Amino acid sequence: MVLPALVVVAVGMSAFLTSGPASGASPTSGSASTGLIAHKVAKSSKPTKSSKSSPIHTLALPSSYIAPGRQLFEENCSACHGPAALGTSRAPNLTGLGAATVDFWVGTGRMPLADASLQAVPKPSHFTTKQVEEIAAFVTSLSPVNGPGIPVVNTKTANLTEGNSLFVLNCAACHTITGSGDALADGYFATSLHAATPTQVAEAIRTGPGNMPRFGPGELSNKEVADIVAYVTGPIKHPDNRGGIGLGGVGPVAEGFVALLVGVGGLMLVAFWLGDRA
Ligand code: HEC
Ligand code: HEC
After folding, report:
1. pLDDT in tens, 8-64
2. Rounded to whole angstroms, how far apart are CA atoms 168 and 262?
3. Is the CB of 202 under 6 A from ligand 2?
4. Secondary structure of the chain: what % helix, strand, coil (to 5)?
């Protein structure tokens, strides 16, 4: 888990100051401290039986998906990524990526890219869920993979309070406490989380798309990922305003946590704020 004091301060600041894209410095340092940690997970094409207690298991992609996936890839992707996905001057090499990465980029509509913009943006996917999985099966059939398969998350036993704390500490500095997203340095932005499915949230955490850091199992366990997924696809999407003060409608759990931050981080916040204004 990554718990830099700066992130806590930045979260507190964005909650209290609602000051627009001011948190550029801390996302960048968060990225540097976590982005380099690589991890290896079982190949998606040969799914491992995860232990029954794990709330996340890897989707098995049948080999019958490879042929239709090849066809879809030729029609929609190979002009940029090359017929064997080895990359061209227009787009990166995809061989070796896990199915989770392919599923995330195509499933969130970031791919196929219409034109080379600064950042591929999420949009309604061109494909059905099955077609996306076929494309992932084809790409991961090309060479041994070195990344996670498509995660299926069971949130039934997830702990929302834990998910809320983990979200505040690891995610809110970039995505804001309401999950609506924020601008980062150099024209990049942390996208809104409100449209992401449970699988896509877990994929983002484990693969670190674009400028987002990757959180390996050493930083967030499967249980912790499931707690965050439950929080991001639950309370954050469906705000409940029974709580006291309005903080962009994040609900009583988050507000309780913010109240805690006032006590713990209050002095640091004031120092930070004054320093900023000077
Ligand atoms: C117009 C060119 C273009 C087309 C068509 C296209 N891509 Fe891409 N793709 C790119 C570029 C450029 C990037 C790098 C974008 C970035 O990093 O923001 C990229 C990135 C990716 C990534 C992320 C790679 C990584 O290492 O994180 C995946 C996965 C991907 N593309 C899959 C696909 C698939 C599958 C298709 C077809 C459904 C497709 N792309 C179609 C240009 C294209
Ligand atoms: C250092 C900043 C940073 C941190 C910390 C961070 N993210 Fe992100 N996140 C990003 C950026 C930037 C993107 C957009 C990547 C792109 O489109 O190229 C993103 C994209 C996402 C998406 C995709 C949303 C969509 O529908 O397109 C999800 C889901 C997500 N992040 C979840 C999380 C979660 C959960 C955490 C905490 C465990 C987290 N992020 C921490 C920067 C961050």
Report:
1. 444 444 443 333 333 333 333 333 333 333 333 333 444 444 556 799 999 999 999
2. 14
3. no
4. 45, 5, 50
Q: Does a cis peptide bond (omega within 30 degrees of 0) precede residue 4?
A: no
Q: Which residues contact 129 (CB under 8 A, 6 or more apart)?
A: 107
Q: What is the dihedral of CA 147, 52, 164, 169, to 10 degrees?
A: -40
SS3 at position 61: coil
Q: Is the CB of 119 under 6 A from ligand 2?
A: yes
pLDDT in tens, 231-266: 999 988 866 544 444 444 444 555 555 555 545 544
* Residue keyed to tokens 């998906």: 65
Please list the residues that pair with 153 across neighbouring strands: 56
Structural domains of the chain, ranges and CATH numbers in brackets: 5-40+155-277 (1.10.760.10), 60-148 (1.10.760.10)
What is this structure's pTM? Answer: 0.77
Is the distance from the beta carbon of residue 205 to the nearest atom of ligand 1 less than 6 Å? Answer: no
Position of tokens 């690589």?
38
Q: Is the CB of 10 under 6 A from ligand 2?
A: no
Number of helical H runs and strand E runs in the chain: 11, 4
Q: Ligand 1: which of 72, 75, 80 to mutate, judged by most atoms within 8 Å of the beta carbon?
A: 80
